[in-house]
């Protein structure tokens, strides 16, 4: 039965004021309704139930490994956001946010009708029993309740319970962009100070894995002895892509730079001293394109954060996906597939135009967690009407708090993502753009087919 809220949401997607040409004329809508009823068909059947039954491939998430007594997993993110200065949290990430109660019920059998403290005390024992019962299979058990067959695990390293075939690895490459003194970049604000400290730790780890204590003397040696071997180790460890969180650290505008210019900066500051921002950018841009080319050679995709990010200091304009256009247009990088994570919000129309690039893909991770289904549905409809073969389902499951861990955030995002997809496809059916059969084809592409083809799963 369609509720008033559901009807209003579907009306919003049907009219979709963001589409070229504006909302359909009222007379046309009435004629379409009469045609449906006149043919004895009534409203076209809802595809939501079919969508709910499709096992998905989650293109981007941060699952937490199984931990023993006294252990804590901090490798679910190279730049954890829990050390940032306070900011104004979106409504859907606040304590008691919509969806959390439903997630507790679906995952752990929470039986209370609200989240008052005296009731919420029942959750930790329920969660603990599930973890103890499932053991190392607990993360896969969570995926089953999310309706997810495979999750791409964006982690520093895989771990206990986070293993193939249910989890596929996506490690981090940002630290490789910053091999010099990062003190000047870290001084920008408190968030970047914490982030560059984390990147310095990860770079030392990559150097140690390469048998080095410090970066080698020349840029050529750095690329051949550190960068390429790191990427090759990741590939050998099962990685299907490399992840860049660069928008938290700098703009996504990675220009084409001559190797000599980059080598000069590296040689000048490798021994010490923080390089000026404009000179350091030359080196970062060159290394980024080198990494992207190597990923293409190794058969790994490049994942890039394209969305307004966490924290009060995040520079939103620096995450505009249009800044990546020169990368996508570089003939030397056409063998590398780029996945723009989070669908570029708030630049969702700009990112739509980039889907014509042969090596450009996107997912809607985080949008299904932070936005109501009707808002996401309008964006999904634009993408599906343009280049549907480039659009992928994802959750961005993340351990935000004890109240909403990676399990709850993943379940909520998966549920809302399916709702949004159903709203978009139902509206397209009603507008006569697609048949029901084509709607289910599109749903399968978005939920699993596009990712399966991209990564060869």
Shape: globular
What is Rg? 23 Å
Mean pLDDT: 91
Parts with pLDDT < 50 across at least 5 consecutive residues: 1-41
Kindly list the characteristics that best describe this protein.
alpha/beta; three-stranded parallel beta sheet; single chain; five-stranded parallel beta sheet; 457 residues; globular
Explained architecture:
By secondary structure, the chain is an alpha/beta fold. Helix 1 (4-15) packs across helix 17, helix 4 (100-108) crosses helix 17 (406-430) and helix 10 (219-236) crosses helix 12. The strands form 2 sheets. It has a 5-stranded parallel β-sheet, sandwiched between helices. It has a 3-stranded parallel β-sheet with strand order 1-2-3. Residues 1-41 have low confidence and may be disordered. The chain has 18 helices and 8 strands. Strand 6, helix 14 (348-354) and strand 7 (360-363) form a beta-alpha-beta unit.
SSE order and pairing:
Layout: H1 4-15, H2 26-38, H3 48-52, E1 56-61, H4 100-108, H5 117-120, H6 123-134, H7 138-146, E2 148-154, E3 167-170, H8 183-186, H9 190-209, H10 219-236, E4 241-244, H11 259-269, H12 277-298, E5 301-305, H13 325-328, E6 338-341, H14 348-354, E7 360-363, H15 367-370, H16 373-386, E8 391-392, H17 406-430, H18 436-455
